[in-house]
Design a protein that fits this description.
about 210 residues; alpha/beta; Rossmann fold; seven-stranded mixed beta sheet; about 30% helix; disordered C terminus
């Protein structure tokens, strides 16, 4: 049945270095977290199969480098994206202020056919740090920014303990699906560069 075939959805994760992009991806795909920080060089991706409305989709999640010296690589990785995830650290004001730059840079380099309606999702990460006492960017401020950009969906997450990670990526997948053209591109098999077994999510009941 066609409804059981897997369709590829490309998701790009952007944000300043150190905000937790890699950790969020690993928490969602592998349910693992590491305190050891290692900067992403260029870009890397993981895949995970998700089920939405009785259809199977393969999320190809691209984790990109936050350092300035890798910015020129953006255009090669951004093209063909179905959804862009903007991540900031709720404990670092600059990472929030830079969301504008990341969003504009993506739209410039990816050149989506309908930039005004291209799906973004914003994640305010590291809400677990210091029990929330180190927080400097309020939920109200973040939600106001998202509203000003066309009501971008917003989630507050912890890559460390998994808070809202599953819910956020379910929303990301649903928004990516909306951006897909009518002609679905199906894959015969799930891509897995690591050679490991893919994990299934339980689907979204929201």
């Amino acid at each position: 049945m066609a409804s059981r075939r897997r369709m590829l959805l490309k998701v790009i994760i952007l944000g300043d270095s150190g905000v937790g992009k890699t950790s969020l991806m690993n928490q969602f795909v592998n349910h693992k977290f590491s305190n050891q920080y290692k900067a992403t060089i260029g870009a890397d991706f993981l895949t995970k199969e998700v089920q939405i409305d009785d259809r199977l989709f393969t999320l190809q999640i691209w984790d990109t480098a936050g350092q300035e010296r890798f910015q020129s690589l953006g255009v090669a990785f951004y093209r063909g994206a179905d959804c862009c995830v903007l991540v900031y650290d709720v404990n670092v004001t600059k990472s929030f202020d830079d969301l504008n730059r990341w969003r504009e840079d993506f739209l410039l380099q990816a050149s989506p056919h309908d930039p005004d309606n291209f799906p973004f999702v914003v994640l305010g990460n590291k809400i677990d740090v210091d029990g929330g006492n180190s927080r400097v960017v309020s939920s109200k401020k973040a939600k106001a920014w998202c509203a000003s950009k066309g009501n971008i969906p917003y989630f507050e997450t912890s890559a460390k303990d998994g808070t809202n990670v599953e819910a956020a990526f379910q929303c990301i997948a649903k928004n990516a699906i909306k951006n897909e053209p009518e002609e679905d591109t199906y894959l015969p098999d799930t891509i897995d560069m690591s050679g490991g077994q893919q994990q299934r999510s339980s689907g979204c009941d929201c």
